[in-house]
Structure formats: structure tokens, C-alpha cells
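To whoever is covering the structure queue this week,

Two jobs came back overnight. Logging them here so there's a record in the thread.

Job A:
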Amino acid sequence: MDRIVKIEEVSKLSAFFRNHCIFTAAFPLVYLILNIVGLTFREVPLFILIGWTILGWIAIFWWWWFKTYGKMSHIKHFVIGTIGIALLLLTILVSAFISLFAYNPDHVVQIDGKKYVAEVRSFTHVNVDYYSYFGPVLRGNRVVIYGYFGRGGFDPYDSNVHGTVKYTFYDDNCNPIETRTGSF
């Protein structure tokens, strides 16, 4: 009976490993195909997919490490475990550092009666790139409208700051076709 339980556990873990390998291979392929047809993932779904991929590989490493306990020398097992912990901590630190600077909040907004995904980049100046809206997961990969909101480090869609904005509209070939000034 105990052997059957172990076989079922190994079978479930092997299925997880197989499915995660398929997901890890399919994710970049889907991302590439979407970019070829002019689409890309929005910020939050993209970070979730990348995080899921990293966590899956970490889980697979630790499953392998615990599974091989006793099958190799204790020193070798200790060294591999220490390297695994160091890589885990390095991954957490690098991910935290990247997320501080890579995350650009996005909002679904309407301009001239059409929905866009507004991706805010604000450090010393507030720049907003507007992409075509294709649902909660996808957006276009070309900037359709660019908005310059001036100096500051704020999100114009999440703050009470008011001022003027300069919009630049682009055609399908990324050439500027119109410039407007408005208030926000």
C-alpha cells in the first residue's frame, strides 16, 4: 500500500514537471506569435506568467533535491542545496529590484470614444503611452497615442494632480499625424 502511494506521488510530480515544461516552452512561443500579429500581454498578466514560470522551476528543483536525498553523498547534496538556496535568494532579490523599476501601471481609458490601454511611465517626467485595447489580458504592441503630462512622479489616472497634457496621435506606420493639448 505504501509503495502505491509513493508511485502516485511520483506520478503527480512527474505530471507537474511535464506540464510545466510544456508551459515554459509554450509561453515564449505564444508571446512571439502575439508580437508578430501586433499584440502583446498587458503588464499584470505578463508578470503573473513570468512569476508562475520561475516558481515552477524552483518547485521542480526542490522536488528533485528532496527526491535525491540519500542517493548521493551528503557533501554533494549539501553543496547543491546551498547553491539552490543562494539561487533562490538571488532570484528573489533580482525580481524585487526589477519589479521596482520595470512595473508601469496600466489603465483602461477612453479617448475620443475609443478604449485604450494607458501605460504610465513616471519618474521625473510623466509619460503615458496609449495602446489599442484588446481585453483584460492583451493590448496592441504599437503606441497609438503618446501623452506628456509634465514634470513629477505621479500617475495621472490615480492622483488628484491637475494640469495640461500634450497628446501626439500616430498612424499605423508610427508617424505623428496630430497633436492636441488638453487638461487632465
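Job B:
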Amino acid sequence: MKIFKIFVTLALAVASSAVANAQEPAPGRVVVKAMAEIGLTDGMSLSSDMNMTEKKTSTNNFGLDLGYKFWAHKRASFDINAGFGYGVIRNKLGVDDIQYSYHADPDADQDGNSYVRYYEVEGIRQNVETKSYTVPLYLTFNIACCEWLTFHIDAGAQMRFKTSSKVKGSSANYYAYGIYPEYDNLMIDAAWLNNFGHNRMEDAPTSNVVTNSLTTSLIFGGGLEVMLIDPLWIDLGVRYSSGLNDVFVNKYSGDLYSSSNNVPMSYTVANGETVNSLTGYLTKSRLSGLSLRLGLVFRF
């Protein structure tokens, strides 16, 4: 939010200066924009009841916007714009040094016994990729600085319709052992039984990522359009996104270690060791970041 306030202050200062020295706006009421956005800062605001030691996000968007200049007066004009695009969100999540236990049913023991399963997890790392169709709707305020240069400010909203979300890579280091109450609390950590002992898992089987099918963000931005050859302009600017709802669904709120379904890692004889998607432990997962915006603009 601090970045956004600084950006707005600078944008208003540039706009005031441009109005004082601007010329008549360039003709052309229909605007077609081929745009690409590349994340400059961490792309999401993430929170969790679990102490996550790694929470990084990168975002990229590509799309085509169509605009119409509905008002113009001397140096200034307004466009209304709508578009369609494709966006990718990549998250790197990790936890370290967590310990827990849960009651393991007979299906988690090769001999069919119930016991208490203990974990000492040294670390879990996951890469998650979410792909979406994007639909922006925004207003653009233009100020013609000269015949070949225009300054603009954008404000509006963007919807994301999720097409896929999955864990692209998952690894875990852990130590596991069992306490068997019916055998006078016998402790077993032998590697040949129930995946006990010290283990490292690469490409670990991971539960599905659960996301909201639709997320909405407010978008604010600005930049400069420079004419190459009329009617072709190049656009260079920045855009700030502020999410209104979460990208990921919080599946494991409350007591994180209340059952084998809630814990980060669990075991059954049939399925072996399974790691839950760390996105399910996020209590907040909203887009919040600054992007570099590049594009080609056709004004007709």
C-alpha cells in the first residue's frame, strides 16, 4: 500500500505539470492495446496460522484491450477500456521445524495396529502455479504532452477466472516414529516399518490445490505513450493490483493438527506418505503488487 501511495502522489504531480504544458490530444477514438505485465514486486499478500518461512509470489499477464475515447477537451481525454487476457501466478511456499502427532488408524500400519504417529518435519517446499483468464475493465485519463507523447492514468477492476491450479514441485525432509499404547507405549522408528525414521521426499505426492474460481482486484496505474509511426504507439507504465478476495481456499482453519486430514504430512499403507498443499493453510491470499506494463497501442 505504501508503494501505491507513492505512485499516486508522483502520478498526480506529473499530471499537473503535463496539463500546464500540454497540446491538443492526438485524434483517434478507437484504441487497441496489446499488453504484457511483468511483476516487479512480490505479487500477493499472504498470511497463515502456520509459521511459513517462505512465501514468495510472481505474476505475469498478457492480453488484448479494446478502448473507446468517449470524452475529449483541449489537452485531456477519457477512454473506457475492456480486455481479455491470460495470467499466471507462481507461488513458492515453505515451512521449517514443525512437530506434531495424531492418532493413526489401522490403515496406517502394516500390521493393522492403531498407534500415535509423530513427525519432526525439518522442511517442506512447494511450487504452485495458478493459471487464469483475465478480464480487465478500466478508465484511462490521457493528457497530450506533445504531438508524439501522451501521459495517462488508469483505474478500474480486473476479474480472474481460474483455469488450473496445481503443485508443480514438492519436497520434504522429516523424521517419523510411532508410539503403540497397546504394547506398553512401545516406540518404533525402524525404517522398514510404516515409513518411519529419517526420510527425504522429492516430487512428493501432494493433495489438490483448492482455489476460488473467480477473484477480483482493483487496478491502478499510469505511464507514457510514445508515438512510433501514426497510428502505432508504444506504452510504458506500471500497474498496481489490490485483491478484493482470496485466491486460495483456507481448508485447514482452526486446529491444524486435530486429525490426519489436517496435518501437513500423513501416512497410510495404501497411499504411502502424502503432503498437503500448503496453500490450504493460508488464511489470506490476495493479489497485491506492482507490475511493469509494456504494450503496443493502435489509435484509429
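Note for Job B: Residues 123 and 250 are 21 Å apart (CA to CA).

Please reply-all if you pick these up so we don't duplicate work.
Q.
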